[in-house]
């Protein structure tokens, strides 16, 4: 009986029986009242034979009293109290019940009292004669026959109640099985089947219930299963991509290491242009090698912690802007920085370079895609608690999908065709410093991201 339908069956039977018990007490009280009133009426009819003539035989009198089921009959007529019929009482009168003004509570109390008192008694019953045949009628009677009649009536009520309870419980049981238990079982079966193969979209439940609440539950479950299936597929793609990127990064690192050896020789060149560009080329290749090594570590699920050092922020910002200015080509984009020359902070310079480069690159790509002139600005400020770096642009703003999945891989791309990995990587790198990366605003007039790096112990060298 641990099932829903079994418990519902038991509760239904209990509640129906409880309702029948509540009905039983008023019913048995009403039966006792009707029984006593019938005795008064039969006694009144029996007394008419005596009132019709002056004398009746003792045998006839006994027969009239026996048919009425009483011992004595007293009538009050014209303010005179008259003993109409009488016979010897087996025992003295113990109690008197007046039915003329008895309330419901009093009738129920007297009925229950009679059921719980098995000993026979002689009682006096007072009531009003029918058809205004006097002012009062009073009879004496024994209680044994009354109690037996009440018990018989009560048993019939209980049997009827039991039958009604069983029929009602069975009907409700069948109704619950059809309209509730079976749909729930179908939902549970669908959940189990989906759990065995959550990647298979065919296991997603198809809402079909006609019950409003169950329909809502099925639709919610279908939405959850669809989202989970998509997330699992995305996870598989990310896992596969991670493995592929790790392999490519391994080989690319070797190639870049070789290129780094060749660029070392460029520094010995006497050509002024080569001397000016060689350090930037060396720095770019060095960053590419470090990125490959970090990618290999990430592919092994080992996110490298930041290597903290104190450095000038303006150097990194200048490198980023110089690189993006070259990438902009003929596009009408102006770059500016608002970073004072002596502004220093303690962080991982390579990771911070990647964060700023990703944000500036996204801004540059958005402006180029719009086909309009634009401006990109990098601003830095600090308080006693934190360092704030703000990257803003005058581009077209982020598309709705990018705003909804801003830092989600492959869903938060800021430009058409973008993967969204840049923002995701930047978010994780800033979080590794104990800071935060947030979208300050976006719209037709441009976009601004804010990097916040707490100082704390980072201020110490």
From TrEMBL:
It catalyses: ATP + protein L-histidine = ADP + protein N-phospho-L-histidine. SUPFAM superfamilies: ATPase domain of HSP90 chaperone/DNA topoisomerase II/histidine kinase, Homodimeric domain of signal transducing histidine kinase. Keywords: ATP-binding, Kinase, Membrane, Nucleotide-binding, Phosphoprotein, Transferase, Transmembrane, Transmembrane helix, Two-component regulatory system. The chain crosses the membrane at residues 6-29, 157-180. Its EC number is 2.7.13.3. Residues 247-457 form the Histidine kinase domain. GO terms for molecular function: ATP binding; phosphorelay sensor kinase activity. InterPro entries: HATPase_C_sf, HATPase_dom, His_kinase_dom, HisK_dim/P_dom, HisK_dim/P_sf, Sig_transdc_His_kin-like_C. It holds the Pfam family HisKA. This is histidine kinase.
């Amino acid at each position: 009986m641990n099932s829903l339908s079994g418990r519902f069956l038991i509760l239904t039977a209990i509640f129906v029986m409880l309702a029948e018990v509540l009905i039983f007490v008023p019913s048995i009280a009403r039966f006792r009242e009707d029984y006593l009133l019938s005795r008064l009426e039969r006694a009144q009819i029996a007394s008419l034979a005596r009132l019709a003539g002056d004398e009746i035989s003792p045998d006839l009198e006994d027969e009239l009293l026996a048919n009425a089921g009483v011992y004595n009959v007293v009538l009050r007529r014209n303010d005179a109290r008259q003993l109409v019929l009488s016979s010897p009482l087996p025992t003295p009168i113990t109690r008197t019940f007046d039915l003329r003004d008895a309330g419901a509570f009093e009738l129920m109390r007297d009925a229950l009292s009679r059921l719980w008192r098995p000993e026979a008694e002689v009682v006096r019953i007072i009531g009003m004669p029918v058809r205004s045949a006097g002012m009062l009628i009073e009879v004496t009677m024994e209680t044994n026959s009354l109690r037996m009649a009440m018990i018989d009536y009560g048993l019939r009520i209980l049997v009827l109640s039991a039958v009604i309870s069983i029929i009602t419980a069975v009907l409700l049981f069948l109704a619950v099985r059809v309209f509730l238990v079976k749909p729930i079982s179908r939902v549970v079966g669908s959940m189990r089947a989906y759990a065995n193969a959550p990647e298979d979209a065919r296991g997603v439940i198809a809402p079909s219930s006609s019950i409003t609440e169950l329909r809502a539950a099925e639709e919610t479950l279908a939405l959850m299963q669809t989202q989970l299936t998509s997330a699992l597929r995305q996870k598989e793609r990310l896992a596969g991509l991670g493995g592929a990127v790790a392999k490519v990064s391994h080989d690319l690192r070797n190639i870049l290491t070789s290129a780094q050896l060749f660029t070392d020789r460029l520094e010995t060149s006497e050509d002024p242009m080569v001397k000016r560009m060689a350090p930037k080329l060396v720095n770019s290749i060095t960053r590419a090698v470090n990125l490959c090594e970090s990618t290999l570590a990430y592919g092994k699920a080992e996110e490298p912690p930041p290597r903290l050092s104190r450095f000038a922020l303006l150097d990194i910002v200048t490198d980023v802007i110089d690189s993006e200015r070259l990438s902009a080509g003929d596009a009408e984009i102006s770059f500016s920085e608002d970073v004072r020359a002596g502004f220093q902070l303690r962080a991982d310079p390579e990771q911070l370079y990647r964060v700023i480069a990703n944000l500036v690159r996204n801004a540059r790509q958005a402006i180029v895609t719009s086909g309009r002139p634009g401006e990109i600005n990098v601003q830095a400020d600090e308080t006693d608690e934190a360092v704030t770096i703000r990257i803003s642009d005058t581009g077209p703003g982020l598309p709705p999908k990018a705003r909804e999945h801003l830092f989600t891989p492959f869903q938060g791309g800021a430009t058409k065709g973008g993967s969204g990995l840049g923002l995701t990587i930047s978010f994780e790198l800033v979080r590794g410093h104990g800071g935060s990366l947030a979208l300050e605003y976006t719209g037709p007039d441009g976009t601004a991201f804010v990097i916040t790096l707490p100082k704390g112990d980072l201020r110490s060298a």
